[in-house]
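Chapter summary example: a protein plus iron/sulfur cluster.
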Amino acid sequence: MANNKRMNLTLKIWRQKDSNAKGQMVDYKVTDISEHMSFLEMMDVLNEQLVNSGDEPVAFDHDCREGICGMCSMYINGEAHGPDRGITTCQLHMRMFKDGDTITIEPFRAKAFPVIKDLVVDRMAFERIQQAGGYISVNTSGNTQDANGIPISKHAADEAMDAATCIGCGACVATCKNSSAMLFVGAKVSQYALLPQGQIEAVDRVKNMVAQMDAEGFGNCTNTGACEIECPKGISLENIARMNRELMKAHLK
Ligand code: SF4
Ligand code: FES
């Protein structure tokens, strides 16, 4: 028979009724949790327990539950997306914990990500940064040049693809002592800066996205590198350097 370790756990969870309420940590017990469950499945067990006893379930964001959408923002035992590396909270397995553990679960904390309720934060600031320039304008009248017909070096294509894997989860912001969004914005700027299709709007893109990032109240990068370590998609600090070079070039034009 396959191993199936079962666990009894204490959860310390941030509960906050709404954005104006004063939140607090509340203790819960969950029992008979399988090591094969995902972290979110464990949270589902807790919520079922709370609903059955007439209490309000813990609000948390989730959607794809397979590491794609970037919704599942949880700060677990002091780390964005928990103790594993290169994964999102929905990909975190309970086998990372042991029977009797106490697990602390908080929302992603940053001034630019206000708490909406419990573990749910408002990450619309990222959307507004994207809207400021994270796109290319293409004529879709039917005369569009086939993307495969534009020569791009393998190196540039690979680097652009790596930058494009950013899922906008916000773990970089939550992890950074300055609540900096530069890894996210660096990835979004780089995705286009590396490709010929991104050149036409390059100057406005980097200027507008960085201006929006500052307007949203994110802090500056001081090269600590914690964001790179906690990023579930392995977005490299090199993207921040590229964004800074792009910004310098844009101001010289
Ligand atoms: S850079 Fe990484 S941590 Fe930051 S939003 Fe993108 S995927 Fe998430
Ligand atoms: S729920 Fe989509 S990345 Fe976790």
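Key point: The pocket of FE2/S2 (inorganic) cluster (ligand 2) is lined by residues 62-65, 67-72, 88-90 (CB under 6 Å).
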